[in-house]
Sequence to fold (256 residues):
Amino acid sequence: MILLLFFLNIILVEANAIEPNEILENKELEVQARIIGKELRCLVCQNEDIQNSNADIAKDLRKIVRLKLTEGQSKEEIIEFIHSKYGDFVLLSPPLRFNTAGLWLLPISFFIFLTFYFFRKR
Amino acid sequence: MISKEIPEFSIESLNGKKFTNLDIENEEVIILNFFASWCPPCRIEHPQLLKLSNNTPVFGIAKKNEKKDLLPWLAELGSPYEIIGMDHNGLQSINWGVYGLPETFIIKEGLVKYRHVGPILKRDLEIFKNLTNN
Fold:
């Protein structure tokens, strides 16, 4: 039982790379910062968000998110600022636009195609 | 960032004066190099920057570099820089969309025309010479 709890604790609790001196005093803003952090990609990592990465750029991005929150900027403004500096790649959820339509539509089209293929009448 | 206007900025420079976008946005062509004395590839590209500075003004932004570490490094290797901005907290690098060090921009009349990620090697000098019309 203890072993199970131990393993569940490891699996379910997300380790993040936020250092104590980064954490904002205002708890609401800190929560906002973490929500935003989950949507931003660590640009030099393999598919990590900025919360979970030790990379220098992730740390700096976390810093700037918190700084802008304390200045009163909104989540949308902050994400748009970072998006304007680093492009679509910094967004973990790529925007749905004409040139990203393929990204979104291909997997589901493939799945539908396969379903029909395997269930066709012989 | 390519063919985009350079961002507005105002940071302290190594000699204490302000370094701002006004210092570079009207120049015909300049090179802006993000570097640090603690960055080994920056040391590797330094000779190329010195060469380029003979024909094109080179400006630098030192990321997270203390003056006491930067000054001996420049004394040892030489300085190609007209002005060196000090980016102590890394926020200026984010302002320019920099991923890591070194990164170098060629800027013509306030527009970013080329971005070089990583050290400028000898074989990269050709591209730089062509783009700076030298």
